[in-house]
Amino acid sequence: MRLTTKATALLAAAVIASGLAGCASTTPPSDDGTISIVASTNVWGDVAKQIGGDAIHVTSIISDPAQDPHSYEANAQVQLALSKADIVIENGGGYDDFVGTLLGGAGNSTARILNAVKISGFDQAEGLNEHVWYDIPTVRKVAARIATSLTALDSSQSATFAAHQKTFDDALAGLEAEEATIKAGPAAGEGVAITEPVPLYLLSASGLVDKTPAAFSEAIEEGMDVAPDVLRKTLALFTEHRVALLAYNEQTGGPETDQVLAAAKTAGVPTVGMTETLPEGKDYLSWMTDNLHAVKAALG
């Protein structure tokens, strides 16, 4: 799902004015020598924390696990954090364009901007799946760029940042091993259905094949009505038992997704909820571990 709906764009524009007016009443983090990082979501915020540890202060713009990212509302505190940020981590790919708008309004021209989609190396042509935090190689590249940026800002802690990066890399390798286990298992090549492209990188790396009509997941992602014929073809995936599981976005919903979930339940097709932000009490690694375990369990 992209976070650049018309409503979000209007909110981003509005907060530029409200942020400038409200800065006086907002208390920023104390200036204790830590590096200030602002991330568009708590996913990238947590990856930064894994590398920076106690040497950084992280502000994640979207962090409520119960929040529909489409309903995100910016505030003056975010604007202030961006105005003081040393590093800004955005997802890119059209997912969180509001970051650039807010950063421009904050008047911060010196922050180092890390764009995950650009760092990924994926072709940014039309049709890119921008949910790159579900792609482990991309997360590894972003973590490396964070370590490089932190070292440039505080070379005295370069060894610490490098050690944290190595620990994180090793853990990511464990996630890739879990994907490889699923891919080598009896479910390899099985068809799956999705409501949105959010988890596709993880599913594909696990050897699973998306059978969802592209027009369905695109319409759901963009908040548009699904054409009747497209919905019929999607529901047939379950009634005709052509998919082994349904991966759905827990943070959004609507009549069409409700119908798909009901069809999966009726057909006895397992469902796996996925999210776009970290669930409460989870870090990136434990979250992705849970996702992979859920997929593996659903496949039997």
Spans of at least 5 consecutive residues whose pLDDT stays below 50 are 4-30
How many beta-strand segments? 8
Percent helix range: 40-55%
Rounded Rg: 20 Å
Distance between the termini: 28 Å
Hey, roughly how much beta strand do the residues contain? 5-15%
Shape: globular
Overall number of domains: 2
Provide the succession of SSEs.
HEHEHEHEHHHEHEHHEHEH
* Number of continuous helical runs: 12
Mean pLDDT equals 88
- CATH top level of the largest domain is Alpha Beta
Instruction: Give the name of the CATH architecture of the largest domain.
Output: 3-Layer(aba) Sandwich
Question: What report would you give on this structure?
Answer:
With 300 residues, the chain is an alpha/beta fold. The protein folds into two domains: 6-177, Nitrogenase molybdenum iron protein domain (Rossmann fold); 185-299, Nitrogenase molybdenum iron protein domain (Rossmann fold). The chain is built from twelve helices and eight strands. The strands form two sheets. Strands 2-1-3-4 form a four-stranded parallel beta sheet, with helices on both faces. Strands 6-5-7-8 form a four-stranded parallel beta sheet, with helices on both faces. Strand 3 (87-90), helix 4 (98-106) and strand 4 form a beta-alpha-beta unit. Helix 1 packs across helix 3 and helix 7 packs parallel to helix 12. The longest helix has 27 residues, at 158-184. The radius of gyration is 20 Å and the shape is globular.
